[in-house]
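Morning F.,

Quick status update on the modeling queue. The single chain you submitted on Monday has been processed. Sequence for confirmation:
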Amino acid sequence: MSFLQLTGVTKFYGDTCAVADMNLSVEKGEFVSLLGPSGCGKTTTLQMVAGFEPVTRGRIELDGRDITHAKANTRGLGIVFQTYALFPHMTVTANVAFGLEMRRMPRAERLERVREALALVHLEAHAGKYPRELSGGQRQRVALARALVIEPPVLLLDEPLSNLDAQLREEMQFELRRIQRQVGTTTVMVTHDQGEAMSISDRVVVMEQGRATQVDRPQRVYEHPRTRFISTFVGKANLLEGRVNGEGAVQVGSLRVVVDETGFRPGAAVLLSVRPEKLQFVAPGSGRLDGEIAERFFLGSQWLYRVDTAVGALAVLCPNDGRVALEAGQRTGIDWPVHGSRLLPGDVAGTAAEAAP
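Structure tokens below.
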């Protein structure tokens, strides 16, 4: 049996359904991210697990124990909020020790646990400082130490890195994963940042309109998205309308594209999805189709091109590897490997809306 189990968990606010029939199994020691845009239900799901929001329908179990209606302070979970919620009048040591004091832990044991927690997050030298004297990344690590020091069965993270600047956020992603692996705490994180979720999670739960639309390993979510929404929310994708022709290929306008496996009946309307980095420039006339460079954008390590073709505008992402960049107005061929394309349902259904009651 899974360590944390959500079965048919549903949340209504009046007539509005915020979370619908959420089923999720999290194994002990696993790092799972709830990923989706604002309003998709990911934070509400986390709050129901934490006990801050009552469950309208369904069941939540932790290590075989039903905690669906248990009070938040009896669940023993570690929580890191988006704002960190540190006590400004307390030192780093006092902030981290707070949960242990509430549990009436003897002082000597409490101080030892705090010392170990601060060493884990590399803040031993800042033990006597106040939150206002710390950087954003340091405050985030204090909040993490405070959550971990109580040795919770599950660590809940609510957008823990969203208040950090881009460079620090990237650094803290890997620091967070290092700490989680070292401690081995089962972790559920809420984020709207697909790069953050993909880089540090064991599995990702993509949510849309209150429903989990795909639960999978990060690479599977990226390489094998199940819906149109996932293909564009998790990374970028070129989506071309076509029809399966029954010969292991898809007809996109005048372009016939062979695919590994259609999974759709002959004649079905589909979307051919190709990630921009799967496309490559070749000599005109030697690829699948030709086009003209409409725009280009320099991204530092990469060039992003918009290319006008007979099947529509395509985004092409190329590494900045020293080759001469193509110019606007230049003609070029475009090609991609057979395994570089995926097929999705051709209508806008096939998303969370399709499963709505």
